[in-house]
Amino acid sequence: MKKNNIFLLVLSLALFLVSCQKDLDWTPSVLGPIVYTKANVKDLSDLKDKRATYYLPSFDLGFPENVPVTVPPLYIERLGPQTINISDYFIDVTIDTANITTSISNPFPIPIGAGTKVVMRDAEDTTQSSVIYDFMIDEDIPAGGQFSSITIFENSVVTSTVYLYLEDFQSPGDTNVIFTSEPAEFSMEIGFLSIENIRILTDQELKVEQTMNMSLSNSSDSTLESGMLHIYLDNELPVNMAFQMYFMDQNDVGIIDSMFDGKANVIAGTTDPVTGSKITSTEAQIDIPINKAKLDLWKTSGNIRAVFNVNTNGMPGSFVTAGNTLDMQMTIAGDLDLVFTFN
After folding, report:
1. pTM
2. Considering Cα of 312, then 42, then 333, then 218, what sign does the dihedral take?
């Protein structure tokens, strides 16, 4: 907190008192906001970029490793699927907008031909209705070459398990070439930009971390003696939360100590199981005493890391639904006891 914001009134009173009395120790209590933060459904769900990769060894094309071979022109209608689990936390996510990065690494001694497609499906079948996203290569990827493309896709559903296929695989081939043991890699990485809702499995847990700047400062003629941390929460999300805050070192890498003992707990709000819209929210106030040793550490440490252990333990049914308008709001205020010494 800035000196002018928190201690202005205290200092004014102190100057008045010191003009009347010498050798005075004075211990006022100052209440002020420290930080306000808000986490939405994306922040507290398993929605960091999701990557699915198809690994293609040469023997899937019918060619051995480490011996010279001649490869005629190739066309293979379909390879796969390879099954990839991208989350144990959710069933599916309904996307408004996402970007998808398609990356191909070709260690083969032959080109991967234009017209080859990478297809992501939500079921192990070849129907058009199961396609989440597909991408067709529009130019040959040379032997030993790399390829990457970013595109936007909208209004789709991404499931927790996806099935990758290679379709219409093509190559012009080559003569007297040697395949190594390194497979070709075909990757799709999804970046969730905006979502409509997410269906979260019950009896699941997820850890989410957030770094916050919660610095304390005080005037040179005062010391922080003790205090109370007041945490006000309004939780619209259908997940329980237990959280703790940690003092970080000056590089914000290592944890020095926790701010308080145990964890602060907040119960879930309730939502419509179809749309994910709010039915009820949960409000809570948590008061945590902070001793002088913790306050001294607070002043000298780096940022504060908040760790949220999010869970859906014990909730009825197999899933809960969270819509994109839901959030968890947290305000932290400090009730700090200061000692001013005047000689």
Report:
1. 0.80
2. positive
